[in-house]
Amino acid sequence: MNRLKKYPADSAEFVVLHGERQQKRNRGLSMSFLGQKNPQKAFRLAKRLAVFPKIDDIYLKDVDLSGYICSVCDAQNCKLWRPYQTFEISLMCAKCACIDQKKDISKMDVDGKINDDTMGKIDQIGWYVPAVPTEDYTSEYRSYWGYSAVPGPGVDWWKKLPTFPKD
Ligand SMILES: [Zn+2]
User: Fold this and answer.
1) What are phi and psi of 125, to 5 degrees?
2) How far is the CA of 80 from the centre of ligand 1 (A)?
3) Which residues, other chains included, contact 87 with Cβ-Cβ below 8 Å and sequence gap of 6+?
4) Neighbours of 83 (CB within 10 A)
């Protein structure tokens, strides 16, 4: 993905991204910025002024997540799991999934991982895997990323949710 295209060529963000790309390719800096013609100084100046939104903060921001709810206890605004490979998706919170799958919830950490005796730290609860909605999610059309296909911002979104439902 070319992030440069998202910014006007005279913006601080463009100068920073361009400079970082040059450095990655072991090339010299070449851009001026706000009248600063020395590329090194221009790059440093741009770095001070550039603002990059954190993409994980905007993931699913405008998506209706009213259907993202535990099918057993109605818990919301917390991590939810879904059955692995099934079309009939019934979501469960950590508590309900652990009861259903006979797992010890006290072994779960804030990232939603449990220490499995044989597999080490995993974010699966028995046959349940993290439910990460796709960006076209609605309360009628609920779709989730495949377990091994969740994109980075989706992973971050899920990790940031509280692991345990509020009582
Ligand atoms: Zn629940």
Assistant:
1) -115, 95
2) 8
3) none
4) 19
Ligand 1 mean position to 55 CA, how many Å?
Answer: 29
CA distance 89 to 81: 10
For residue 36, the number of C-alpha atoms closer than 13 Å in the C-beta half-sphere is: 17
Ligand 1 midpoint to CA 75 (Å): 5
Residue 155 CA to its chain's centroid (Å): 4
Q: How far apart are CA 74 and CA 67, in angstroms?
A: 10
Tell me the CA–centroid distance for residue 70 and ligand 1, in Å: 5
pLDDT along the chain (167 residues), means of 10: 77 92 91 94 93 71 91 96 82 96 89 86 93 90 89 89 88
pLDDT at 36: 93
Tokens representing 44 are 């440093």
Instruction: Provide the whole-model pTM.
Output: 0.66
Q: Tell me how far CA of residue 160 lies from CA of 48, 102, 112, 151, 154, in angstroms.
A: 28, 25, 10, 15, 10
**What is the per-residue pLDDT for 30?**
94
